[in-house]
Give the backbone structure.
Amino acid sequence: MRLPPGHCIVGRSIWARAVCAAAVWAGAVTGCSGPQLDELVDQSVQKVSQGVESVKSNVQQAGEKVQEQVEQKVNQGLQQARDQVATQAGQAGKMRLELDPAVEISSCSATLIGFRDGRPSVLLLQSYRDAEQESFPSVLLRATVPSVVPAELAGQTIEAELFVQAAEAGPVWSSDGPVSLQIVSADAEKISARILGGTLRRADTLESVSITGEVEGRSTP
């Protein structure tokens, strides 16, 4: 089909738009010759080249984004696989709370957090590595400690806060006053502790129960 001057079929890609623009430009200069024609042709080629470079840039940016997303998914998958293997090998820690019924969990992470501004260091013993991996029953023990060196904590009895949620849709229990926590042993790989006593209070009904138990947390960076 013969198209009228200045008309072109517009494609979906930037390649089609660039070629179309060049064709329209060339049709508009049919009456030109000599240096003017050469100059206009050069300008047309330049426009097409700019379109091509724009495509390359967009493709590269999209590729980098996809690669980043893939790497993130792979890293998450590797971490989940490590956690699963550690659990099966009995190396993911454990928790047991003497409630009615007893709460037993086959994983426990131990994290020591130090601050440079003079604030006390913090020990976290929790049934999940991070919030995204939280499962139920869910338990969190939090205590301020005098050192971030695990070996220096061994044998000490400290005060802690305790939070327990047996089911995702269930009530949250929290310590009513400090819970007595004895650090039985501690090194670079794990921290073992015993809950000597304390009281948990249910958030919605204010019901209270006594609590004891044992935890063994595997150290996390």
Notes: The CA atoms of residues 1 and 120 lie 82 Å apart. The two ends are 70 Å apart (CA to CA). The chain has two domains: 14-81, 94-219. Helices lie at 14-28, 34-88.
